[in-house]
Write a structure and sequence with these properties.
2 domains; globular; alpha/beta; oxidoreductase; 20 strands; Rossmann fold; 9 helices
């Protein structure tokens, strides 16, 4: 089978790998679609993302969907050809969370994630034609949902988890700073949750266009000199740019809530944070998700349309070009999708 393998900074190759066989409790997925995430770009551009550093070649990709090609011993209730996506997180060991963190499995200290170099050996991802998956991590798609959209359940789950970290947004005016794929999915998630008005801000006109298509009532083009709106009771920071923190805190109302969704650097970076104290802002982090991937599938089943986020589609053999487009701010792209196999358009 073909697989997208990153060997180091600037070195990604499409290689031949053996087709795996499902073991006990596993299924074999014939993958059809994958979405390129910022972490995939990080491994390709820098050989690292966050605190995870690439030590060996690794198959990229954690936003994937396909169809069940085979079922391993002991697996019941899963039929071949079932369209499905995957919950990409697997806890390591039997760590018990303290009561105050009950149910928040995304905060376990050791979690293996598809396409992650956080541990050695690394965890291969799903940018390949076939991959075995523990049956418990399989998430069948609702009737009528394509595998292309199924591959977007993972990033939509990130957005839904962030919304859950905020006070109830129904009926409120909300600001989303950063309108990349996660920010634009946040716009859709907020509208789905009943937000009265959503403003999206970014430096890229193309990203703002996607945010409008996802339901933003207003957009703020920061590159043209527009300023963030003031006194926003609920704000989501999705850019991950330390330089944005000062203006975002200033845009947050006194006593308001700021949810940090964009990944901030793991190294020191200058940021103006004074308003955090003087305005008594509650600043909360949001990391991956727990089981919101199920909520994401239900939301898409119930009519949340995430297709505006998709801007480019490439075949698996064009993976290097797809990563370059996804990483290019001038490309004005939203979510870049890789066609890993199966039907040509929309994944069926």
């Amino acid at each position: 089978m073909k697989a997208v393998v990153v060997h180091g900074a600037g070195d990604v190759r499409v290689e031949e790998r053996p087709v795996p066989a499902p073991g006990p409790g596993e299924v074999l997925l014939a993958l059809e679609w994958g979405g390129i995430c910022g972490s995939d770009i990080g491994y390709w551009r820098h050989g690292a993302t966050g605190t995870a550093t690439l030590r060996h070649p690794m198959i990229l990709g954690h936003e994937v969907a396909g169809r069940v090609a085979a079922v391993g011993p002991g697996v019941t209730g899963v039929a071949e050809n079932t369209p499905a996506t995957v919950h990409p997180a697997a806890p390591v060991g039997d760590t018990t969370l303290p009561e105050r963190l009950a149910g928040r499995t995304n905060l376990l200290p050791r979690v293996r994630y598809f396409g992650s170099a956080a541990f050695d050996p690394h965890t291969d991802g799903g940018f390949c034609e076939y991959r075995t998956v523990p049956a418990g991590r399989l998430r069948p798609l609702p009737d009528g949902l394509s595998t292309e959209l199924g591959a977007l359940a993972e990033p939509l789950a990130v957005a839904l988890h962030a919304v859950s970290r905020a006070p109830a947004v129904r009926g409120r005016s909300v600001l989303v700073n950063g309108a990349g794929p996660i920010g634009s999915l946040l716009v859709g998630a907020l509208r789905h949750a009943g937000a009265a008005r959503v403003t999206a801000a970014d430096v890229a006109p193309g990203a703002l266009k996607v945010a409008r298509a996802m339901g933003a009532d207003e957009t703020c083009d920061l590159a043209s000199g527009q300023e963030l709106p003031a006194d926003m009771e609920v704000v989501f920071e999705a850019s991950g740019a330390p330089g944005a923190l000062g203006p975002v805190l200033r845009a947050t109302a006194r006593g308001g809530r700021l949810i940090q969704v964009g990944n901030l650097p793991g190294t020191p970076a200058p940021a103006a944070l004074g308003d955090l104290v003087t305005r008594e802002i509650t600043w909360s982090g949001s990391y991956r998700f727990v089981e919101e991937i199920d909520d994401a599938l239900r939301a898409m089943r119930d009519g949340l349309d995430v297709t505006p986020v998709i801007s480019h589609r490439f075949d698996l053999g064009e993976a290097a070009r797809a990563l370059a487009v996804a990483a290019d701010p001038a490309a004005g792209c939203g979510k870049v999708m890789l066609r890993l196999g199966g039907p040509a358009e929309g994944g069926g």
